[in-house]
Amino acid sequence: MTEPVLVPADPEPFALPPDTTALMLIDMQRDFLLPGGFGETLGNDVTQLQRVVPPLARVLEAARAAGLLVVHTREGHLPDLSDCPPAKLRRGNPSQRIGDPGRYGRILVRGEYGHDIVDELAPLPGEAVIDKPGKGAFYATGLEQLLRDAGITHLVVTGVTTEVCVHTTVREANDRGFDVLVLADCVGSYFPEFQRVGLRMVSAQGGIFGWVGDSTALLSVLSTTAPSTV
Which of 27, 116, 131, 179 is catalytic? Predict the structure, then answer.
């Protein structure tokens, strides 16, 4: 076992135990990030999410080198949409809906090109990939059991979007007793004001849902760690 290392964060340094910490990459999918994908068809500026990719790629590389458990998530549904509640399917007034043919295949349908993770962050063989039907990564998935079985107590959370799937997952993790560090430059929103407020909500009131830091602070700490041999 290795001793926890301190990562500068708000509201206070985050004590990260490398042996029991997992890096989570939430929904870094082509449908959300690429031009012409589902996110853009909703009228969003996908460059707001794309800027997350370079710092997150560096964190992913460092986490792998340090021996952290890596978990990727993908939001999407079965081809027959039987796991997509009608309320979710009809929500809003988009030009295209979940299951419709899109530029990258049927939108948010498992097995389609657009449902998968962008090339820069592609999972390595053996890394966990959690397919989730909802916003939160714990809902209707095996994520909690996977983390418990691996002895995970702390999470470093990254991905998109800050105010939706990231926030929901952070809240779910908090309710389950995990300590969570959100990396501000490794999460993204289509809406800058939601990004700012969403991050503030995590660390408010002494860290009501968790801690907020940045990739530079984490990388400086991970560079001093090595996988445990015990």
Answer: 27
Q: Is position 132 annotated as part of the catalytic site?
A: yes
Question: Is there a catalytic annotation at residue 27?
Answer: yes
Inter-residue contact 104 to 114 (CB < 8 Å)? yes
Is the separation of the CB atoms in 162 and 191 below 8 Å? no
Phi-psi region for residue 165, left (φ > 0), alpha (ψ -120 to 50) or beta?
Answer: alpha
- Tell me the residue type at 122: A
Q: How many CB atoms lie within 10 A of CB 28?
A: 27
pLDDT tens figures, 75-113: 999 999 999 999 999 887 778 899 999 999 999 999 999
- Name the token pair of 190: 């289509």
Catalytic annotation, pick one of 19, 31, 131, 165: 165
> 199 and 161 in contact (C-beta within 8 Å)?
no
| Overall pTM > 0.90 | yes
* Residue 185 a catalytic site member: no
Domain ranges of the chain: 26-162
Out of 10, 31, 131, 132, the active site residue is 132
Task: Tell me the angle at which helices 215-222 and 53-66 cross, rounded to the nearest 10 degrees.
Answer: 20
Region 26-162: CATH code: 3.40.50.850
Burial of residue 148, with CB atoms counted within 10 A of its CB: 0-12 exposed, 13-18 middle, 19 or more buried? exposed
